[in-house]
Amino acid sequence: MVKNCGWNEIAPIPKYNRVIEGYEDSFKDLKNKVKGEFPLQLYTIHYTRRTHSVFDNVTWLREAFPQELIMNPSDAEVRGIKTGDTVLVTSRHGKVLRQVFLTERMMPEVVTLGEGAWVMIDEATGIDLAGATNILNGAIPTGQGHSGWNSCNVQITKWTGKPLDADAKWPPRIPLKEA
Amino acid sequence: MEKQLAFYFDMSACVGCKACQVACKDKNDLPVGLRWRRVLEYGGGDWIKHPTLANLVVPTSVFAYAISTACMHCQSPLCAQICPTAAITKRADGIVLVNQDQCIGCRYCEWACPYGAPQFNERKGVMTKCNFCEDLLAKGENPVCVAACPMRALEFGDLAELQTKYGKDNAFAPWPSADLTRPALVVTPHKHAFPSGKGGGMILDPEEM
Amino acid sequence: MNVREWALITFTILAQMSVGSFIVLGAVHFFVQRKSGEKQADELSDRALLAIFPVLGLGLLASLLHLGNPINAYKAVANLGTSWLSREILCGVLFAVVGFGFALMQWWKVSTFTVRNIVAWVAALIGVVLVYSMSMVYMIPTRPSWNLVTTPLSFFVTTLLLGVLAMGAAFVANYWYVQRKNPGCASEQCILLRDSLKWLAVASIVLLGCQFVVVPLALTVASASGASASVGLRAGEFGVVFVLQLVLVFLGAGVLGIFVYRAAQNPGQENAMGMLAYLAFALVLAGEVLGRFLFYATAGHFGLQ
């Protein structure tokens, strides 16, 4: 059935399977290692503030875990970015704004953002202010052993508009009241 | 001082989950900005270019570990010494307490504390800090941070007993040297832990952004 | 920078200026009284003396603004045993009370000259202890850029420098007031004004010299004691402010000091001399405020904040 849908299968022996929007797709010329329009790999993590999307609106948790975009200082330096700066994260599918956090624990040219944030799109610009990774990831069905919803390629630039407030300072969102 | 209550922190077990921080906020109903107990990450190092394979970098010296830090209930509390209204006092059991009725909110203790323990409550206009959950201790219960930690990384007890059990060295980065105020803290270090002032790393605290 | 820091800058500058002014006035009064008699000396300095204490009062009021809970402010003298801040507040209040008491005694000629003299000396001594206590408040191990011998040194230099320049301006104002009200003894006062301004001009240049020793010394000692971050801030982010501080103090105390001295040498140049004295005071006050601003802005912290 998987083959009939045109999706790839898992081989019975360990093999490298090219991931959609993974390492290779960050280059426009893979052979000569020339980076493309979206040179960074973004993967998503199970963020400690939430269980997927549950409890994203709890203020003390938002204070402890600010849904930061985590990147390596070497990538930030070439972009003129410091910890705490607001950055625009752009992928082939959408854009989000986040405050950035720098640590050597991230591999250079790879960034991470927690999955499950509640979307908050700024109507004027179409940019998601809350850092929901589903905005960045494409609705790309994949085959066995891969997931299209947790990896993509992004470009990060320093945001020159109004900086974001820390998540904990946002007015609490209470779903029943909003409806 | 016959007794000195102290915290024991197992740095090698801490995963940086912040359950202790949030439990403390919950029990004391602290507003955003006040963290009587907080979890900080200390990290650094660098990625080295592979000598022969192009485009490959390796994290040979990268390190990071988390610490859970609150009031140290120091044996020589500088905060109590310099407070102009004597609002900060040290009890017979070693706990250092702020009397909010006596405090004038001059924030001198905030300048003096090497551990960032006294924190200013904007709404009340006075200084506040970890009180060792002394009300719970009086009932024979554990402080909430100790109770909340899923890794069992926090314990408490008499300083001398904890030191006999776990050792005396507590001056690990990013904490400053213990000589200033003699904190009542016992630590089991992380395998990458550096001594105070060393490591060349940075305190990575996303909540400071 | 927030309200709190400006409150502390205002309080420390005004309090130090008050103590410096009191000491300078005392010295001037002593020498003038020996040369021209008590009446002339009083005419020169009594009004300035009275003016010191409202300024100190403003400073004390400003210090209340930096408290989160000023209602409890009276409790701040409860820890004299170990807290320099407690001691500083006690000295501040005592200096205000004894000093203003002396000023009133002087104005209404209460009791004898000798008794008033003793009260003045006591007030001056309390003032010195006040400036010392103020500087000791900042000698804490978690603030390495403050915990240096140059902190009390610079506080005392600021005290005297501001005292000298403030009293220069005060004497000019006093002279113009006296000239309007009582032309009769104006000419004697004119000579005293010029003489005292000459001495104050010399003193301001000497104190400028002290500043130009203490300021670089503070940076060197700070670097050597591991407070190099604060030194870097003065070169980097706050570089413009630091240069401005030095330029203002140099222009006010040094350059204008020389012009005031020259104008004071010849009679008939009182207007120019007066304007110069006012300008010198304004420049130095601005420079010292910037210096104190930098003191707080480049503080840094040892350990976890």
Name its key features.
heterotrimer; B: 209 residues; alpha+beta; Alpha-Beta Plaits; three-stranded mixed beta sheet; three-stranded antiparallel beta sheet; C: 305 residues; mainly alpha; 2 domains; 9 helices
Characterization of this structure:
The complex is a heterotrimer of chains A (179), B (209) and C (305). Chain A has 179 residues and is of the alpha/beta class. Helices cover 11% and strands 23% of the residues of chain A. Chain A has helices at residues 59-64, 73-78, 133-136, 175-178, and strands at residues 27-29, 34-35, 40-45, 69-71, 86-91, 95-102, 110-114, 151-158. In chain A, a hairpin with a 3-residue loop joins strand 5 (86-91) and strand 6. The model of chain A has no long low-confidence stretch (mean pLDDT 90). The termini of chain B are far apart. The mean pLDDT of chain B is 94. Chain B has helices at residues 19-28, 78-82, 108-112, 134-138, 144-148, 159-166, and strands spanning 5-10, 38-44, 48-49, 57-58, 63-69, 88-90, 96-98, 119-121, 126-128, 154-158, 185-188, 202-204. Chain B has a domain at 5-72 and 131-208: Alpha-Beta Plaits. Chain B has a 3-stranded mixed sheet. Chain B has a 3-stranded antiparallel sheet with strand order 5-2-12, with no helix packed on it. A two-stranded antiparallel sheet of chain B has the order 3-4. Chain B is an alpha+beta fold and 209 residues long. Chain C is mainly α. Chain C has 2 domains: 1-137; 141-305, no CATH class. Chain C contains 9 helices and no strands. Chain C has helices at residues 3-36, 38-65, 84-108, 113-137, 150-181, 186-224, 228-235, 239-265, 270-297. The radius of gyration of chain C is 20 Å and the shape is globular. The model of chain C has no long low-confidence stretch (mean pLDDT 90). Classes of the chains: A alpha/beta (179), B alpha+beta (209), C mainly alpha (305). The A-B interface holds A 33, 48, 59-61, 63-66, 68, 72, 74, 83-84, 99, 101-105, 107-108, 166, 168-169 and B 17-18, 21-22, 25-26, 32-33, 35, 39, 41, 43-47, 54-55, 57, 59, 62, 64, 204, 206-209.
Strand order of the largest sheet of chain A: 4-6-5-8-3-7
The helix content of chain A, as a percent range, equals 10-25%
Provide the CATH top-level class of chain A: Mainly Beta
Task: Give the CATH architecture of the domain at 5-72 and 131-208 in chain B.
Answer: 2-Layer Sandwich
Chain pair sharing the greatest interface: B-C, 36 and 29 residues
Number of helices of chain A: 4
Principal-axes geometry of chain B comes out as globular
Strand content of chain A: 15-25%
Do you know the CATH topology of chain A?
A: Barwin-like endoglucanases
